[in-house]
Every structure is written in structure tokens, then in C-alpha cells.
């Protein structure tokens, strides 16, 4: 039976930066945050709508002591953040700029261990110009509605022509998005188009170029998921519904799309959004268990001489991790248990 009216639920995380738990040994005493709390929100919403879509908009893999220790010492083991994403049944993710920071082999292994595609249409092989990690976009059919999700990473800054890392070329995000949106409409005829863009509206970034303002002018996009700027956006801009959900897992973005049957396809009627705060969720014990032993190894390492010698020998390592080690208290270690 064909549904005349359909409601699609879309959930977004962005800029998690390896944060799982809210406790102080993660290097911050800020408000409730992290994937363990967001997991509870996601699972509750999935009970209400089993066919919801769950996306990440980049910078999941780097930014906490756990992910630092894993990348430097434990990359032969399952990636803790990928384990969580697989557990929560993500539908896709976009590659963020910091996801590259531990190297292309590290990122390739993380993608290879994922049960979902990582999308980055503008991250291409420098010779063939084909998407380097295989997937520029994906198509999902939910409740009879055909949904195309295109992934684009931020344009990287350079004073000497195109930004190239080994065999990888970062194309301009705006031109890539415009080209692929046209391709999707011509070849897929979707009812709903979502651009999962690891970028935002701040043009003053020192590392990348945010082009969300220009991307909003591209015809054929219904929803623009953004990230990188660590702010909260939930509004319509230039006919696109734009969402960004803070950082470190303080909030889960939720979008509700209402569609009506229109001939053999569906037409978007309304798009509304809100944030679900981690303050209102208990930490998911299943997610905590997934990373328990890797977290314990991180704490043991941080209390040992190995960590002190490591950072005394290398001056260019992550300053956030250095600060965390210097301020680590015995209470943080005890709190773990």
C-alpha cells in the first residue's frame, strides 16, 4: 500500500572529536556531552521511528585522549569511535578535516572497518579525479521515499594551487557539490536531496574555507547538514533547511521532513528541526562497555612515564593532549572505576 503522507526522521551528529563520556578524565569539565549520552537519545528515537536516518558530518575520529592513544599505540585494534558508530547503525558519514590528521592509512583503516559509507565527493585521486574513498553519495529508500545523500568535505586552504596530500586532491567544495547535485538529479531522480557538508559559514578559518553561503545558492538541495564551526544552526537559508549541532556531543540534531504523494514520487511539504540535549539523557552503558578497556589503557598510559617521555621528545604533538596530561589528577583515574 502506498502512503499518501510520509514523515522522515533525520538525526545528525557533528564534530564529536572522540568524546564518549562526560566525566572529567576526558580532558574537560564542560556540560554533559559525548557519544554515550547521545546514544541513549538515538536509541530512544529509533524506538519511535525504526526507519530513521542517522548521519555524522565529520571530525569524529580525532580530539580526545582516547582517540590520541588509539591512533598512536592501538591502531591494530578496533577503532573505538567506529565501534560506536557501527553499534548505532549510522547510515553514512562525511569525512572531516581532522579525520585526516593521523594519516591516510589510519583513515583508510577506519573507513574499512565501518559498516556504512564515508562520503567525500570532493576528496579525489589526484590523477583519475575519482572520489578517493569510493563514495560521493548514497541513495536510501525510506517509507517509499527516495533520498539521496551527498557528502562533501571542506575546501582546504593553500597558497600554492590545489591542496594535495600524497595521492589525494581536495577539490573546491562548492563546485564539487554543484556538479554532483546536478548528476544526482539527472541520474537518480530523488524525492529528497541532503548535502552532508563538513563546513560552515565562517569564512575566516585559518585551515579550511567555509562555503556554506555559496552552497546554499545551489538549486536542488533540500537539507544542508553542516559542521566544523562548532555552533548551533537550525533554520532555513535560501530555501534550504540548515542544521548544525554544536560539538563534542552536547546536542543531537533532529529534522522532521513531511512529504506528500505527487504522482509516482513524493513532494516535500515541510521541514522542521530541533536539538535534543545530552543533558536530558543517561549515559548508555552498552556504549561505555564498547570502549572500556581502550579507555583504561589510555588512563594507564597517561599515568606512566611513557607518556611523559613521549611528549618531552616531540614538541609538535597535539597541544590538547599535552594540557590534559599536565592537569591529570589521581581523582580522574579513580573516577574511572
Specify the overall morphology. Answer: globular
Rg of Cα set: 20 Å
Largest β sheet strand count, sense and barrel closure: 6 strands, mixed
How are strands sequenced across the largest beta sheet?
A: 4-3-2-1-16-17
| Average pLDDT level | 89
Number of helix segments?
Answer: 10
Number of extended strands: 17
User: What low-confidence regions span 5 or more consecutive residues with pLDDT below 50?
Assistant: none
Structural class: alpha/beta
Assign a percent range to the helix content: 25-40%
Cα distance, first to last residue? 53 Å
Amount of beta strand: 25-35%
Write the H/E string, N to C: EHEHHEHEEEEEEEHEEHEEEEEHHHH
What does this structure look like?
- The chain is an alpha/beta fold and 337 residues long.
- 31% of the residues lie in helices and 28% in strands.
- It contains ten helices and 17 strands.
- The protein has a six-stranded mixed β-sheet with strand order 4-3-2-1-16-17.
- Helix 1 links the parallel strand 1 and strand 2.
- Helix 3 packs antiparallel against helix 7.
- It is globular, with a radius of gyration of 20 Å.
- The N and C termini lie far apart (53 Å).
- The mean pLDDT is 89.
